[in-house]
Amino acid sequence: MKKKEVKGFNVHDNEKKLSVSELPVGDIVEAGTAVDFYTGSWRLQRPVWNKEKCINCLICWISCPDSCIKILPDKQKTSIVAGIDYDHCKGCGICAKECPSKIKAITMEHEKK
Ligand code: SF4
Ligand code: SF4
């Protein structure tokens, strides 16, 4: 990924993904840079999506606060779930909670570090 300067420090530190603990304490960064921060590094639980169970209702997609549910157009020109963006998913579990109870296509598992 391209190296980017934000308020005097390197977000990507020469291609190395910065963890949250490496960011300057109390710093203010420019708006619109959320994609540059790998918030997945602080995740304690990981959502695991089961493609076979998923009915593509997209409730998880509209519920995720970090836009981490990936979607793609399908042959009928609607959208279908394509996976989870683990670089930015914080493991909040909202997607798993909101997935319809009769479907439960997303389960939370402990993150292996
Ligand atoms: S666990 Fe939270 S951040 Fe991760 S995909 Fe689900 S709703 Fe989004
Ligand atoms: S909420 Fe559950 S069933 Fe609906 S699209 Fe997401 S994973 Fe699939």
Describe this structure in words.
The protein is mainly beta and about 110 residues long. The chain has two domains: about 1-35, no CATH class; about 45-110, Alpha-Beta Plaits (2-Layer Sandwich), CATH 3.30.70.3270. About 10% of the residues lie in helices and about 20% in strands. It has helices at about 60-65, 95-100; strands at about 5, 10, 45-50, 70-75, 80-85, 105-110. A two-stranded antiparallel ribbon has the order 1-2. Strand 1 and strand 2 form a beta hairpin. The chain is globular. Mean pLDDT is about 85; it is low at about 1-15.
Report strand %: 15-25%
Query: Biggest sheet, strands in spatial order?
Result: 1-2
CATH topology-level fold name of the largest domain: Alpha-Beta Plaits
In DSSP terms (H or I, runs of 4 or more residues), the helix count works out at: 2
Helical residue percent band = under 10%
Tally of separate domains: 2
Structural class: mainly beta
Could you name the ranges where pLDDT drops below 50 across 5 or more consecutive residues?
1-13
Question: Per CATH, which architecture of the largest domain?
Answer: 2-Layer Sandwich
Which ligands appear in the coordinates?
iron/sulfur cluster
Features of the shown structure:
113 residues; mainly beta; Alpha-Beta Plaits; two-stranded antiparallel ribbon; 2 helices; 22% strand; globular; disordered N terminus; binds iron/sulfur cluster
How do the helices and strands line up, and which of them pair or pack?
Blueprint lengths: L4 E2 L2 E2 L34 E5 L9 H5 L5 E5 L5 E6 L9 H5 L7 E5 L3
Bound molecules: iron/sulfur cluster (SF4) (2 copies).
One iron/sulfur cluster (SF4) binds next to helix 2.
